């Protein structure tokens, strides 16, 4: 039976990404079987280790062109989330769109499930592709990951870890017993509720059940691992009490009508982050702001990125646990898969 979401993804979403000059590749990042799927500029994909080193040297020579990494949230993979942004951004920047671990084509045998490990693996994959400095743009769960990377643009995200009281209040507001129940629906009704919570305009009510079921089959898998990822972002209020410190400029770009991470939470986050952070809101948009108001979102994002462009971009620094990094004991090559 035809999966119509798969058809739309292959023939529309992927085609738009290719028109923007991107190609999908897989990158091995360690000896534990961790593989990252990444959409990257086709002219930046190295075929061999020697080519990768040459790409790194050229990237250093072309320091004026900023690399922008778009990191997705929990309800979809990378290119499905950011398809409406890649065309506009690729005109001016080198755009990279990874699938986080256990989404899309990315997987790992490592037992770690923290945003820090996700950031570490994204950064390792980027280094394999010759990217050493970048601006990271994170949506929702991807915002937790983005905080572990270089220049940070956070869309609809909270702190690098979520205080338990904040998570409990969010679940009460959304009428869910757990984040797994909310973000890993197992039927069309649950997925419709998830989309309704994320959008200002309730367009999900018009989706027929067969489309939602097709989306579930295509996008919602690795349920055990994803449930563990959700557990990895919640910490006790005591552990989350210390405000994070960042040297990079940070843009908090929010949907004004977001009921998942509210504007009140955004304002508190800006206050905690200090002078390096700025907050902009987009009217008539909810949590899925980049999909509901794509042109406004892209314009706000580009204005911020243009302010970073004249100076040297910030080093891609992946957060690590106990000083561990993906091993570089052997060469890991990028393999183009389409």
From TrEMBL:
Q: Where is the signal peptide?
A: none
Kindly list any coiled-coil regions of this protein.
Answer: none
List, alphabetically, the InterPro entries matched.
AB_hydrolase_1, AB_hydrolase_fold, Meta-cleavage_hydrolase
Region annotated Disordered sits at 308-330
Q: Which domain of life is it from?
A: Eukaryota
Ranges where the AB hydrolase-1 domain occurs: 68-297
In this chain, composition skew of type Low complexity spans: 312-321
Protein name as it appears in the record: AB hydrolase-1 domain-containing protein
Organism field: Urochloa decumbens
């Amino acid at each position: 039976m035809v999966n119509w979401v798969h058809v739309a993804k292959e023939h529309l979403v992927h085609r738009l990404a290719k028109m923007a000059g991107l190609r999908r590749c897989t990158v091995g990042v360690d000896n534990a079987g961790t593989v990252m799927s990444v959409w990257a500029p086709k002219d930046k994909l190295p075929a061999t280790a020697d080519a990768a080193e040459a790409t790194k040297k050229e990237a250093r020579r072309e320091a004026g062109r900023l690399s922008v990494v778009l990191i997705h949230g929990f309800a979809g993979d990378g290119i499905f989330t950011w398809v409406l942004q890649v065309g506009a951004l690729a005109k001016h920047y080198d755009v990279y769109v990874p699938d986080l671990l256990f989404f899309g084509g990315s997987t790992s045998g490592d037992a770690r499930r923290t945003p820090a490990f996700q950031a570490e693996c994204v950064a390792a994959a980027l280094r394999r592709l010759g990217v050493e400095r970048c601006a990271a743009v994170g949506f929702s769960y991807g915002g937790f990951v983005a905080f572990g990377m270089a220049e940070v643009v956070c869309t609809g995200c909270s702190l690098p870890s979520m205080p338990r009281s904040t998570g409990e209040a969010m679940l009460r507001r959304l009428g869910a017993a757990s984040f797994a129940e909310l973000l890993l629906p197992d039927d069309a009704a649950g997925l419709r509720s998830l989309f309704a919570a994320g959008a200002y305009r309730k367009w999900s009510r018009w989706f027929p059940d067969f489309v939602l079921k097709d989306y579930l089959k295509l996008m919602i898998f690795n349920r055990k691992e994803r449930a563990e990822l959700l557990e990895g972002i919640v910490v006790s209020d005591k552990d989350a009490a210390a405000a994070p410190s960042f040297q990079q400029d940070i843009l908090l770009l929010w949907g004004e009508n977001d009921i998942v991470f509210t504007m009140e939470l955004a304002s508190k986050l800006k206050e905690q982050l200090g002078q390096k952070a700025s907050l902009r809101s987009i009217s008539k948009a909810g949590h899925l702001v980049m999909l509901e108001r794509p042109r406004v979102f892209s314009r706000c994002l580009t204005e911020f990125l243009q302010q970073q462009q004249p100076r040297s971009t910030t080093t891609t620094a992946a957060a690590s646990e106990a000083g561990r990094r993906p091993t570089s004991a052997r060469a890991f090559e990028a393999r183009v898969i389409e």
